[in-house]
Amino acid sequence: MNKQTILKEFFLNEELVEEVFQLYFDDLCRFLGYYTRDTGLIEDCLQDIFVKLWEDRTSLSIFHIKTYLYKSSRNRMLNVLRAQNSRLIREEVWATEEMNRAYAQECVNMEEFTAFYNEAVDALPEKCRIIYQYCKDAQKSYKQVAEELQLSVKTIENQMSIAYKKIRSHVIHKYQVSDPSSLLLLLTLQGAALAI
């Protein structure tokens, strides 16, 4: 059976899916080999293409099956590779953060750091300190604190921003470091998620 005959009967006969798959499989594998050498990934992509082709057979209008298969295979492979790349980037960011956290905890005397942190909180202006402690120590939302203290949510946000800046500045000044990233990471772990 030639390829044109198979194309005409393809949408009428489920058994022809396997035959079309066999006719084009090797050529498509070589083609996708330009994008990756991962044969398992190539085979998975091709299987997905043929499953999708069969599932969508009633809504597709294909004039050249070979063109359709090559184009679909390429697009599927590029999407998979983009997703893998995105996942690898997320994993690298996570690994870097974990290494920085471990480094920060090893290189900073936590007792001393906690003392400086508490000193910074105690040095906040009274209203600012009360709001900060309500939000952080009592673990209440800005809205809850605003209702309890009869203030606006915007006031709570502003006071928390002031508290973050003052705590960060105080701790960094006490340590006298030029690269505060380790200290900022520790401040984040303390619950003072401060933006640089």
UniProtKB/TrEMBL annotation:
Q: What name has this protein been given in UniProt?
A: RNA polymerase sigma-70 factor, ECF subfamily
In Pfam terms, one family for this protein is Sigma70_r4_2
Can you give the residue ranges of the RNA polymerase sigma factor 70 region 4 type domain?
119-167
Keywords from UniProt, A to Z, are: Sigma factor, Transcription, Transcription regulation
What lineage does UniProt assign to this protein's organism?
Answer: Bacteria, Pseudomonadati, Bacteroidota, Sphingobacteriia, Sphingobacteriales
Q: Which domain of life is it from?
A: Bacteria
Q: What family does this belong to?
A: Belongs to the sigma-70 factor family. ECF subfamily.
Q: Which GO terms describe its biological process?
A: DNA-templated transcription initiation
Keyword Transcription listed? The answer is yes
Q: Which residues form the RNA polymerase sigma-70 region domain?
A: 21-85
A molecular function annotated in GO for this UniProt entry is: DNA binding
